[in-house]
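Late entry, written up from scratch paper. The run itself happened at the end of the previous shift, but nothing got recorded in the book at the time, so transcribing now.
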Amino acid sequence: MKLIRGLHNVRSRHRGCIASIGNYDGVHRGHQTIVEQLLRNREEYGLPALIITFEPHPLEYFRRTEQTRITSLRTKLELLGKLGIERVLCLRFNETLANMSPKNFMQDLLIEGLGVKHLVVGDDFRFGKARAGDFEVLKAYGERHGFSVESTDTYMLNGERVSSSRVRQALELGQLELSERLLGRRYSISGRVAHGDKLGRTWGFPTANINLRHQNPPLNGIYVVEVAGLEEGSTPGVAYVGTRPTVEGTRRVLEIHLIDFDRDIYGERISVYFLEKIRADQKFADHKALVAQIARDKKNAELFFQRRGKQE
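Output as recorded:
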């Protein structure tokens, strides 16, 4: 899959495509439905499929604060590539883009920039300054300028709309089975194992640390996890996501203690799959109380895998 960063990097070879536009945070089952619809049109038009997305998330721009994200940009790109998308145009969401009129958005980006021949959007899609553009605006403009537009029906699960905000809410509440149904896969975070302050090692619980810079997952607390990428199959573990209030931490971290595993894995890229939430984050009176709780958390994780082993 080809990533194009910014409209200024669009070349003549990129012109002529079928496309969809959206944040695609999580690439959940609703997003997957749009992609499937887009790909069904690929053979008819004989053109590559392209997704137009944004970085940072538009809500981060408007709210001037970091938005929780289901997926990092890298993971989003990987998921879209696995679905069959050939190109992604990532636009920097800034003041210029936020104030672009719907007409200029369509003319500069869709027509002159990409030469879009067919566009697939969600039924609630809005664009342009003050969200003034919608499906009807796109359709009317396309009829005059040579591209067709179709919308997709809302993807429903148990009578409720599947959306990124619903996935985030499920993850925030620790409803991992629900998030799996909404996403169509188990929720995971990927990254390279980095050096931490090694406090866990001194307490008898060494951890693999993933830097959450550029990620802000909607998780908080202790989780039963499986880790892929270290050996054949998966490795059981218990993970912590939070700011480590007991040791006066300030930045959010992801720390994974791998059960019955002892190998240097610094620099290796792993994927952490979240299976069950054990408890919320909390501040303890001292590190002794914290270590005692970590031991209980590990025991709960071990019991989870024992129960699952018996069921299998």
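The CA atoms of residues 106 and 138 lie 8 Å apart.
(Scratch paper discarded after transcription.)
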